[in-house]
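Class prep. Write one:
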Amino acid sequence: MRKREILLILLMLFGSLFLLSFTKDRMESETDLFSEDEYPEDLDTLEEFIQSYYLLLDSDNYLKSYTFIDPAKNVLQNDQDALKPLYMKLLQLRNGLRDQVVIYQIGDSHVQSGYFSGTARSALQKYFGNAGRGLIFPYRLARTNQPDDYQISSANSFRRIDNPRSLSGYSIANSAEAELKIKTNSFFKIDCKFNQVLLYANKDASMEFARQQNLGTLDRQETSAYSIHHLRFQEPVNTATIIVPENMRELYGLSLERDEAGLLYHSMGVNGAGFYTMADQEIMFEQIPLIKPDLILISLGTNDAQGRFRAEVMRKNLLSFMTKLEDSNPDTPILFSLPPDSRKGGKTNRDIDHVAEIIREYAEDHGHALWDLHDVMGGSGSMAKWRSNAMAAKDYLHFTPKGYMLQGHLFYQALIKGYKTFSETRDNQ
């Protein structure tokens, strides 16, 4: 009896292998996503599929304790078409055929705090490589809240410029030479050292760095409207003092980077921002191409659903914002993060659903990808569960640091799921 059972198992295993081979051959004959020129032969998609599979197993185990979310819905929508260029670049990065992939996130107060983006950044960099902290800004010198993984201090005073917005969301102006002292830390449990600093400033700004410590080289690039100053230090550091000259009248942001292949995750958040406040920020749209993003993640919509909501106004603001963004970044994939659940007037804010519907309609019509954070967190009314689990603030609009960090992990998982599917699809061609 035991021999017959063993034989039956062997026959079933043989049949499964035959069916797998048949299915693969059939898919090879029916699917052709890339030509050989587009997809180099030495890309190991099978290995990427396997490695991302194990990443997701770890992620699933991590999320099991959060019973109030819906992990089955934590997927990107329309990503296999809309984000195919991004997935291709990530695969090239993992296989040593590309040095850097850049993500740029635009958001509101949910993003300005830095917990969402910091969690997503560190998780993605542990897999794709750490190219640096990316975009930072002296928010505290501008008298607003700043992420916890870096500090920028100065004995000098600066004037904050709110309008027009820059690629960092804010700008600062100085009237005399000043010092910026930068210090990074390992708040998100990832190496935070850098050996490059890029400063984005007004066009005619020139810089003298005779007093910079540990400075290796300095390059200055001038565009039609701005200047970019690239400082390279002799070795990786956690601290640096940047001397800002008097003629750097406007500083738009700094990027901390490393001489290592990997992923850069820039993020900008502005408290109270929405499509209605960002649609006319011409400088921001002009500056985004300076960082050469491979993905633009849009995390707006919460504030568009506050106050008196009118669908026609929302559509107009979204169209104005997206027209300018797409015109300035015509080849960059775009991913919308739909706004999370919240309350308005003490009740579940149903206008969030209307905002999400308008964004979804636009994304589908224009071939962009979506991540439905609202559904993933549990749908309408789920903010109460997040609050009872110490994940949401008492205003039922914002989240606690832990709540934002959970969202960052969920986004990381959703992106890895999409990347795994891409790798699997390519391997079956």
Notes: The chain has 13 helices and 18 strands. The chain has two domains: 51-131+261-429, 133-259.
